[in-house]
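pinned: reference chain
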Amino acid sequence: MSAIYPFILSGGSGTRLWPLSRRAYPKQFLALTDAPESLFQQSCRRFAAPGFAAPTILAGHDHRFIIAEQLREIDIAPKAIVLEPAARNTAPPAAIAALMAARDGGDALMLLLPSDHVIADDAAFRETVLRGAPAARDGALVTFGVKPTEPHTGYGYIETVGGGHALAVKRFVEKPNAQDAAAYFASGHFFWNAGIFLMQASALIEAFRAHAPEILAGCKRALGAAKTDLDFLRLDADGYAKLPDISIDYAIMEKASAVRCVPLEVGWSDLGSWPAVWDVAAKDAQANASRGDVVFHETSRSYAYSEQACLAVVGLEDVLVVATKDAILVAAKSHAQAVKTVVERLKAEGRREIIEHKRVYRPWGWYEGIDSGDRFQVKRIMVKPGAQLSLQSHFHRAEHWIVVLGTLEVTIEDDIRLLNENQSTYIPIGARHRLSNPGRIPAYLIEVQSGAYLGEDDIVRYEDIYGRAD
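pinned: its structure tokens
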């Protein structure tokens, strides 16, 4: 029996989990459960088992180095990392996945799933997927429906008929109102739509040909003109960006006839809001859950997260408190969905707190703002072992570097030298310079910038091992 090919979709932004989830570092890359690994890492590790091929990742360009680093941390070599030039919901990446899986034969089974969901029982999940394989090999488009535990209004539903391992699907239903959700829950024939699909590559291609031929044609062009860049496969931007922004549910599943649903009972959550994070977390005797340095007093049924400072929550019930280094959210659990509205307002105001954290990740490590003022800025920088920043210069700022841990090789014009702990150097305005870490441990330095303009766009790259040279 041939292996099942997992295709993991990692293009979401997770705005309902702001301020922790942000556009540059969304929820799939965060450790939001009691496990130490991110949701993305948990999703990839889930298929390190017999019967499954290495995963293929479909993601946005901006997250490529985060993905590569998180895969390296868990020692998983993907089959491919495919970069979408623009976010187009789930239908276009599903078509790309089908076309790629078909290269291993039209009867290849492909499993399409999100990267940001929680699955408590990995073994049971794999068993459930294998349970749906016979129907998929018979040509059905198999979806996995979560058995409801409550009349939830935040999920789409799948109505089924009949019995067996793979139930016939009567219809897909959008997020219902409370009355309809209660009726669905009571009927026993409805399941939550988990957005997980299993099918033969050829069956999905035929479904696209019948119901969304323009998406299939555009994806063929984008994949045919794709280019390899380091460890990534870049889809052609011109063709892909013109594709419809539409989900696979709307484009295919709601129109196809041979659709089956396999019940999924594995401890699933889409972790789509802060109450969902509270729901899957370990709780104390007062039903409080927390991460970080948190103190609860006379508080119950609440969730608190602190990135750095000591956070005390006193005399409250059913609240959410999330404190990062540059933003704090305080909300009633009943109003958690309104976080998305707050994010939209901050976006309209041009606030950077929705885009990135104080700590900004780069392929070579990260930097973090410490202080800033008129004509100066101070950053803390970490450079990974063997990593190297680009050869660059600035038009408007000079820089002072002080090494606080490790060893760094510093290039300033034609001068190359090693700096150890407590040593420093100065880079004049306009000088070409570069940092690299030749050691075996992370190197840390403090950078003091001074000048008339200190924006990150004041940079000219001449050489870059990560393909970012101007």
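why pinned: The chain has a mean pLDDT of 95. The two ends are 48 Å apart (CA to CA).
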